[in-house]
Amino acid sequence: GGPGIKNCIADVLPILAKMLKNMKAEPLHLCHRLDKETTGVMVLAWSKEAAERIRLLFKTRQVEKTYWAISLGDPDPTEGIVEIPIVEKEVQSHQSHYKMTLAPNYRLSPEDGKVVKIRKNRNAESAVTRYRLLASSSACSLLELQPITGVKHQIRVHLAYGLGCPILGDHKYSHWSKLAPQKLPEITLKKLKLEQSKARHLPLHLHAHRLSLPLGKQIDLICNPPPFFQNTLKRLDLEIANG
């Protein structure tokens, strides 16, 4: 849901329930959210009680989330934890717009190169993302990501601005000061059989691959990437070992 979204998942919940059960079925309940461009696992519940129980698990960070993303470039080091607070800021450009960005607690002093603590931004939310490189080829990487916190656009911001590896098809976070299509390396364009002028049509390659819910016993919900994502993996020769 949200401004400018025509097809919202909430609108199809009554129809989906009828398709799965029968014409008298009550609508399904949404237990959490996914960004509109993100593919992957979504948890729906038949009863209000079950939905509230699951929502509480999400809220108290008891759900283990695993995402896959195809990014430009390789993160260095190849695995680790990005722990940098995130804040929403207005970008002053010819077309003013808002973006999430990093609000680090420390910076290097330009005078002597020493580490200086910065005054905390009151609106910044603490954000923690664990990442691991699964494969690398054609100037791109396949990454496994675990967002420990749930800040808006967290994975996209931590990869683009924290690790310098924006997600393939993330036109919003590939630049800071302008709204423009992502600029792709020659080898990536060649492998994708794509011209730079058509790059704006590339979808966001971020996929919620697995959710693990502690409901009495651990329930693992897994969703394979959609065809466009799998097609990109093939074209870029990004093989998943034991994937």
TrEMBL record:
The segment(s) forming the Pseudouridine synthase RsuA/RluA-like domain are 22-160
Its annotated compartments are: Mitochondrion
An example of a Gene Ontology cellular component annotation for this protein is:
mitochondrion
Q: Which GO terms describe its molecular function?
A: pseudouridine synthase activity; RNA binding
Please, which domain of life does this record's source organism belong to? Eukaryota
Checking CDD domains in the record gives: PseudoU_synth_RluA_like
Gene Ontology terms: biological process:
pseudouridine synthesis
Cite the InterPro entries for this sequence.
PsdUridine_synth_cat_dom_sf (IPR020103), PsdUridine_synth_RluA-like_CS (IPR006224), PsdUridine_synth_RsuA/RluA (IPR006145), RluA_PseudoU_synthase (IPR050188)
* One Pfam family per UniProt: PseudoU_synth_2
Keyword annotations for this protein, in alphabetical order, are: Isomerase, Mitochondrion, Transit peptide
Known catalytic reactions: uridine in 5S rRNA = pseudouridine in 5S rRNA; a uridine in mRNA = a pseudouridine in mRNA; a uridine in tRNA = a pseudouridine in tRNA
Extract the signal peptide range: none
What family does the entry list?
A: Belongs to the pseudouridine synthase RluA family.
Q: Provide the protein name.
A: Pseudouridylate synthase RPUSD4, mitochondrial
Organism equals Anhinga rufa
Q: Coding gene?
A: Rpusd4
